[in-house]
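Team,

Forwarding the record for the chain on the shared tracking sheet. I've put the sequence and predicted structure together so nobody has to dig through attachments.
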Amino acid sequence: MKNIKFSNFLFILGVFILVSAYLIQLVITSDIPMNFSISEAIFLQLVLFISTVLFIFASILLSKKSTRYVVIAIFTLIFVVTLSSFLTDTDAEYFTVSYALLTLPFVLQPLLLVLFNGFLIIKFRKVTE
């Protein structure tokens, strides 16, 4: 029971940090006449890394396969939406290396989490058989 509560806490904390990172990205890339540099992108990547680590620890503590399937479905949907958004922005005049560094982690994080949860499903399937 403690693992479930701690896993839920880590998942909720990861969602909170992910949403705050997304809001930071929106502020940085908004229409405010302000230049952003690679340092803001690195800070945002660090925040996303913390969120990813929390999601990974929560996934490790999950014991049900069905919950992992739901997590895979949610993050696959997020991956498809962010990838399509990223690909439509490449022709814009504001698409620079700094902008790519700001948006690309939001595309890669869900993919990493889908692959990790898929690995956990395969690993624990072989253990239980």
